[in-house]
Amino acid sequence: MMNTDPHMIAKIEACPSVEELDALRDAVKARGEEMPGEAVQALARRRVQLQVGGKR
User: Fold this and answer.
1) Which pLDDT value is given to residue 6?
2) What pLDDT shows up at residue 23?
3) What is the dihedral of CA 12, 36, 34, 26, to 10 degrees?
4) Coil, helix or strand at residue 45
5) Which of 22, 27, 7, 6 shows the shortest CA–CA distance to 43?
6) What are the pLDDT digits (tens) for 15-52?
7) What angle do CA 11, 52, 17 make, to 5 degrees?
8) How far apart are CA 50 and CA 22, in angstroms?
9) pTM, entire model
């Protein structure tokens, strides 16, 4: 039941806000899917970048 978007990490890296990161994560959960480890790590990295203001 894991049909995760192959572009998930790119989408995470492009999120402009923490709120959008949360919405992306929530959408995956709402579909009954689980994010793979790489995507969870990318989400955590992006969250830190956004919180410290480094929008790379």
Assistant:
1) 78
2) 97
3) -10
4) helix
5) 22
6) 999 999 999 999 999 999 988 999 999 999 999 999 99
7) 35
8) 12
9) 0.80
Q: Is the pLDDT of residue 54 over 80?
A: no
d(CA 28, CA 5): 9
User: How many angstroms separate the CA atoms of 25 and 15, rounded?
Assistant: 11
Give the Cα separation of 13 and 16 in Å (integer).
8
Place of tokens 């402009």: 16
Q: In Å, what is the CA distance from 29 to each residue of 6, 24, 26?
A: 16, 9, 5
Q: What is the pLDDT of residue 5?
A: 72
Structure token digits, residue 23 = 């919405």
Neighbours of 40 (CB within 10 A): 13
Distance CA 33, CA 46 (A): 20
